[in-house]
C-alpha cells in the first residue's frame, strides 16, 4: 500500500507541475500582446513568473508544503502588480489574461493541497484571494464576472481531480491485493493437488507394488530382486522424509538426490520447503555450511524433521524457528516455537515418539537431545551431534 501511495503522490505532483507551467505560458503570452500591459509593468512581473515556475518544477519532485505556499504568494503578487493601484484602469483583456494564471497556474497547487486540514486551509486561502483579485481586474459592477467564475472553476476541477485520485488509488490497491491473495490461494491449492497426485503415483509405483508382492509371498520374483526393490523403496522413503523431491525416470523408477552428496544447508532448505507445503513456516538462523558424515547427517535431519512435525501437530502455531550452530566438535540445532507448551511431568514414559525418533536416533550416532517446555511458554528442543 505504501508503494501505491508514493506513486499516487508522484502523479499528483507531476500533474500539478504540467498544468501549472502550461497555464503560466498561456498567461504570459496573453499579457505580452501589445497594448494589454505597459512594458514596465510586464517586465516587473517576469521575476515573479520565474519564482512561480521554479515552485512548480520543485513541486514535481518534492511534496514539501513550502513550494505551494511560495508559488501561490508569487502568483497572487502578479495579480496585484498588474492592476496596481486598483483605480479601475485595467482592461477586460488584462482580466481575461489573468484567468489562465488564477485558474491554472495558481490553481494547480490545489492538486497537492487536499491531503489534510492545514493544506485545505491553504487551498481555501489561495482560491479566495485569486478569485477576488481576478474579479477586481475586470471592469464593471457585478457580483461575479465570467472571468472570476472561470478561475473558480479551475480551482474546483483541480481540487476534485486530486480528491478523486486520492480516494481511488487506495480502493484500486485493495482490489489488486485481493486479486493477488486469491491468485496465491488458487496456486497453492493447485500445487497441493499436484503434490497429492504425485504422491499417490509414487506410492502406487513403488511401495504399494512392493507390499503387494510381499502379500503374495513374492510369487514369480526372485528373493534377491525383491530384497533389492524393498531396499530401494526404503531409501526413497528416507529421502522423501528429509524433503527430497523425487524425479520419475521411468515406470516404477524414481531418482532422488542422495543426502550424502548434499551440503547441510541444501538439505535444511528441503526440510523447510517440505514443512512449508504442510502449513508450517520454518525460519532458519545460523550456519548451513557444515559437512557431516552421511549417517550422522541422516540422523540429525530426521530428528530435526520429527521435532518440526511435533510442532506442526501439537504446538498450535504456524511457525517455528531453527537455529544451527557449530564448533570444532559439535553441531547443534535449537528448535523453538511459541506454542501452547506442556509439562514434562505429564508425558507418558511409554510414548516412543520423542524418545525413539529423536533421542534414540541421535544416541545411535553419538549425539543427544534436550527438551524444555512449560504450559503456555512454548517448547525448545536442542539437538546435538558430533562432527
Number of helices: 11
Taking all Cα atoms into account, the compactness measure Rg is 38 Å
Number of strands: 7
Low-confidence stretches: 247-263
Assembly classification: single chain
Q: Could you spell the SSE succession in H and E letters?
A: HHHHHHHHEEHEHEEHEE
Largest sheet: 5 strands, mixed
- Secondary-structure-based class equals alpha+beta
Widest sheet, order of strands: 3-4-5-7-6
Please give a structural write-up.
The chain is an alpha+beta fold and 387 residues long. Residues 247-263 have low confidence and may be disordered. It folds into three domains: 2-174; 206-255, no CATH class; 262-386, 2-Layer Sandwich (Heat Shock Protein 90), CATH 3.30.565.10. The protein contains eleven helices and seven strands. The chain has a five-stranded mixed β-sheet, covered by helices on one side.
Keywords, please?
alpha+beta, Heat Shock Protein 90, 3 domains, 5-stranded mixed β-sheet, two-stranded antiparallel ribbon, 11% strand
Give the helices and strands, then pairings.
Blueprint: H1 2-31, H2 39-59, H3 66-81, H4 92-106, H5 117-137, H6 146-205, H7 207-215, H8 223-241, E1 247-250, E2 253-255, H9 264-277, E3 281-286, H10 294-315, E4 319-326, E5 330-337, H11 353-363, E6 368-373, E7 379-386
Parallel strand pairs: 3-4
Antiparallel strand pairs: 1-2, 4-5, 5-7, 6-7
Describe this structure in a few short sentences.
Helix content is 61%, strand content 11%.
